[in-house]
Amino acid sequence: MADCNETLRELHAFLDGELTPETHEAIHHHLEGCMDCLQAFDFHAELKVVISQKCQSDEMPDGLMLKIEQCFGDEYLDGDPV
Ligand SMILES: [Zn+2]
Prior knowledge:
This protein has one domain. 10% of the residues are buried. Helices cover 74% and strands 0% of the residues. It has five helices and no strands. The protein is an all-alpha fold. The site of zinc ion has 6 residues, from helix 1 and helix 4.
C-alpha cells in the first residue's frame, strides 16, 4: 500500500503513465482517500497542461521544477499523514 511519500515520489511517473498497473492502482487508491496528495496531483496535472501548452513541449524548465519541488517539500514534510 502506498503512503504519502511514496505517492508523491511517483507523481510524475503517474502523470506520465509510466507506472505498472499495480503501482498505478495503489497510487490511485491512495488519492481517493488522501486530500493532500490529491491536491498535489491535481496541481501538477494542471501545471503540466499549462506548461505543455505554453512551451509546446513536455519538458519542464529545470529552474521551475526545482521551485515546485521546494514548495511541495516544505508543505508536505509538515503534513500529518492520515
Ligand atoms: Zn497521501
